[in-house]
């Protein structure tokens, strides 16, 4: 059963509760929100117009061929004239003769290729959104028109809008690539757009720098899931090395790429990996697939190098998670109603067990044929040994997914046909993850100590899983459960997507990546499993105990306000979205943490 339908299940589960009373967040919270959305939005719009559209041209001489800005955008730094899909040539004045091919390659039909489509960060109010392409006003350039020349000739970010870099960094440089590597894609059909959410947050969090010479890291914002991902990667890496001087500084070791594929870097064709081996090896990959040792069952080759690459959580976006028992407002209401919140079941898993969608044989518990390439056979073996055990619920599907996940202590968090998302999902639902696939690191492992809030089980112990879990004491369960409330925050991209368990976003997945990068910068040779021992701030961060000023709360998903003065994400959306280019995350400048702010440079900055 999918989580989407599970959301319905949990709504029914909690349907008897009333949602009247406000959940009190914190008396000392500071708020920028005055509750009056409409006036506020209008004022912002006016200011945006004043800063952007009527700005005088920073210089009358363009470094691009004359006429470029008629249909295209001049990247003044490089003198590169960037064209939308429909135009081509050195000055973007030739109608693209290969339009049909190009549209198809980027996920459109010829018809949908011309339709309106949202623009990245709504072009920061300094350009016109043309079918997903920011046609920036002359003098501005970049995927979202955020760049322009400063008085000293250097490149400025969000000039005139008050961009303030984060004091302690790390500073991250983002390559502005030609639009055929970034904005030409059909945003409505993008699979796993984490590289774009990350890019948005780098700006709204004050971490982006336009000065390569002061950068600690370099982000290459490419899509690794498209059909043409391999050819784009193959083109981009040499392009970066010959266009900017930053790679040669250190052989590309501090260059980051987010790869969201099931098998991470292993998804690139072998010939290409061989050919680019030196380049690929030097890059730092941020991937969901934490396999670091060859796995003989499914013949999986490692895709992750601990200490060099970083395993990052899958971005789950499914509606309904705000109904998690970890959400204080949901929990409080359930308690008021006298609902039973105890987790009296021991172990739960519902989902695909055999590689195909067929259920295992109910007599023998086996899949036919046995397939080791799916989940390394872990789901099949767990089912085979435990499907009829008291206190265990291991099923191919259930109509009561969220009730079950909320009423069992331990939940299986296996891999799928490569990386899995269950460890993220069950953590957010407060069920202790049982991580079970040999040689696989979980998100942010070993930087986070997974054994503190999960039960890692080696595959050889699958048959005696009930004994392993039986040996965990009540006290240990309680400790893990209390730690899970913090660990779950590291698993979710709250600042991009909105709050779901009452969190303020300070410890979300984005901030956790940044915190790990900060450690990399500060202690380049320290093994990541020792981060917590040597750095007090890192230890406090991982335990969600930074202290300091209470941040402004995030807008919350669902119908519940997290704080009376703060709108829900839906309310933000309703009131402000008409002034943006469409309603996708993509057009929401800076992510949900900026939901009430049209100018991303001004949105909430409470993580200094
Ligand atoms: C434009 O270029 C010309 C010749 O290259 C130069 O004389 C002039 O000062 C430039 N104008 C600006 C505003 O940079
Ligand atoms: C993208 O466009 C550039 C020109 O700006 C071109 O040289 C390059 O081959 C294109 N790359 C891909 C992957 O289409
Ligand atoms: C990779 O890094 C090494 C140093 O660690 C350097 O010698 C080599 O040139 C780099 N390769 C590339 C392609 O930059
Ligand atoms: C890349 O090079 C390393 C050694 O430098 C080697 O172990 C690895 O197998 C190579 N990968 C590919 C895909 O050729
Ligand atoms: C847990 O308790 C509920 C009643 O509160 C009961 O219906 C359910 O069967 C129990 N589950 C287990 C696994 O004992
Ligand atoms: C499941 O276990 C019960 C006893 O706990 C047993 O009576 C029943 O036959 C078992 N079912 C299967 C399919 O093994």
Element layout with pairings:
Blueprint: H1 3-13, H2 37-51, H3 68-71, E1 73-75, E2 80-82, E3 87-88, E4 94-95, H4 99-105, E5 127-130, E6 133-136, E7 140-141, E8 147-149, E9 155-157, E10 172-174, H5 194-204, E11 208-209, E12 217-219, H6 229-243, H7 246-250, E13 255-259, H8 270-275, H9 277-282, E14 284-287, E15 310-311, H10 328-336, E16 345-350, H11 378-386, E17 392-395, H12 401-407, E18 408-413, H13 422-428, E19 432-435, E20 455-456, H14 465-470, H15 474-491, H16 494-497, H17 509-522, H18 531-534, H19 536-542, H20 569-576
Parallel strand pairs: 10-11, 10-12, 12-13, 13-14, 14-15, 16-17, 16-18, 18-19, 19-20
Antiparallel strand pairs: 1-2, 3-4, 5-6, 7-8, 8-9
The chain binds 2-acetamido-2-deoxy-beta-D-glucopyranose (6 copies).
GO molecular function, one term: glycosyltransferase activity
Protein name: EGF-like domain-containing protein
Membrane topology: Single-pass type II membrane protein
Enumerate the distinct ligands: 2-acetamido-2-deoxy-beta-D-glucopyranose
Helix content: 25-40%
Strand order of the largest sheet: 11-10-12-13-14-15
Task: Kindly give the count of domains.
Answer: 2
Supply Rg: 25 Å
The total of helices stands at 20
* Distance from first to last alpha carbon: 41 Å
SS-based class? alpha/beta
Counted beta strands: 20
Average pLDDT value? 87
| General form | globular
Share of residues in strands: 5-15%
Low-confidence stretches: 1-59
Pfam families: EGF_2, Exostosin_GT47
Organism: Astrephomene gubernaculifera
Keywords: Disulfide bond, EGF-like domain, Golgi apparatus, Signal
Family: Belongs to the glycosyltransferase 47 family.
């Amino acid at each position: 059963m999918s989580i989407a339908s599970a959301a319905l299940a949990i709504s029914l589960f909690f349907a008897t509760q009333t949602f009247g009373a406000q959940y009190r967040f914190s008396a000392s919270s500071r708020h920028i929100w005055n509750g009056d959305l409409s006036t506020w939005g209008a004022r912002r719009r006016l200011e945006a117009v004043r800063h952007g559209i009527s700005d005088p041209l920073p210089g009358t001489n363009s470094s691009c061929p004359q006429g470029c800005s008629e249909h295209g955008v001049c990247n003044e730094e490089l003198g590169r004239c960037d064209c939308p899909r429909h135009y081509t040539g050195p000055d973007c004045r030739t109608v693209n003769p290969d339009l049909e091919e190009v549209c198809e390659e980027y996920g459109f039909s010829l018809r949908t290729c011309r339709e309106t489509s949202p623009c990245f960060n709504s072009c920061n109010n300094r350009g016109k959104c043309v079918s997903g392409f920011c046609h920036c006003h002359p003098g501005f350039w970049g995927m979202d028109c955020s760049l322009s020349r400063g008085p000293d000739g250097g490149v400025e970010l969000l000039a005139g809008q008050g961009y303030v870099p984060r004091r302690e960094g790390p500073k991250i440089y983002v390559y502005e690539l030609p639009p055929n590597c970034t904005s030409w894609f059909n945003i409505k059909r993008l699979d796993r757009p984490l590289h774009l959410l990350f890019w948005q947050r780098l700006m709204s969090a004050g971490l982006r720098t336009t000065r390569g010479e002061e950068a600690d890291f370099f982000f290459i914002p490419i899509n690794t899931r498209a059909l043409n991902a391999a050819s784009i990667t193959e083109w981009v890496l040499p392009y970066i090395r010959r266009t900017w001087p930053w790679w040669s500084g250190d052989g590309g070791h501090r260059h980051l790429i987010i790869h969201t594929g099931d098998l991470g870097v292993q998804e690139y064709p072998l010939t290409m990996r061989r050919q680019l081996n030196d380049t690929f090896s030097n890059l730092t990959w941020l991937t969901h697939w934490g396999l670091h040792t060859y796995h003989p069952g499914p013949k999986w080759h490692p895709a992750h190098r601990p200490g060099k690459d970083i395993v990052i959580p899958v971005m789950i976006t499914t509606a309904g998670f705000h109904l998690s028992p970890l959400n204080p407002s949901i929990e409080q209401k359930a308690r008021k109603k006298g609902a039973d919140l105890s987790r009296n079941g021991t172990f739960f898993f519902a989902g695909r067990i055999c590689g195909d969608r067929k259920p295992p044989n109910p007599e023998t518990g086996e899949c036919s044929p046995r397939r080791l390439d799916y989940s390394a056979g872990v789901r099949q073996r767990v089912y085979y040994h435990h499907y009829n055990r008291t206190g265990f619920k291991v099923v191919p599907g259930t109509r009561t997914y969220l009730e079950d996940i909320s009423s069992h202590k331990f939940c299986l968090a296996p891999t799928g046909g490569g990386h899995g998302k269950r460890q993220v999902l069950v953590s957010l639902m407060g069920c202790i993850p049982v991580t079970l696939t040999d040689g696989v690191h979980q998100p942010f492992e070993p930087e986070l100590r997974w054994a503190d809030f999960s039960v890692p089980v080696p595959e050889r112990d699958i048959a005696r899983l009930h004994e392993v879990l039986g040996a965990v004491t009540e006290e240990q369960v309680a400790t893990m459960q209390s730690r899970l409330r913090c660990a779950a925050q590291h698993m979710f991209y709250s600042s991009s997507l909105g709050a779901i368990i009452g969190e303020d976003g300070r410890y979300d997945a984005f901030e956790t990546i940044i915190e790990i990068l900060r450690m990399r910068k500060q202690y380049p040779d320290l093994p990541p499993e020792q981060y917590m021992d040597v750095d007090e701030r890192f230890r406090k961060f991982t335990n969600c105990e930074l202290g300091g000023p209470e941040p402004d709360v995030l807008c919350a998903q669902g119908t519940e306000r997290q704080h009376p003065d703060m709108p829900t994400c839906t309310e933000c959306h309703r009131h402000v979205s008409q002034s943006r280019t469409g309603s996708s995350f993509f057009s929401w400048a800076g992510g949900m943490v900026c939901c009430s702010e049209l100018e991303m440079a001004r949105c909430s900055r409470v993580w200094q």
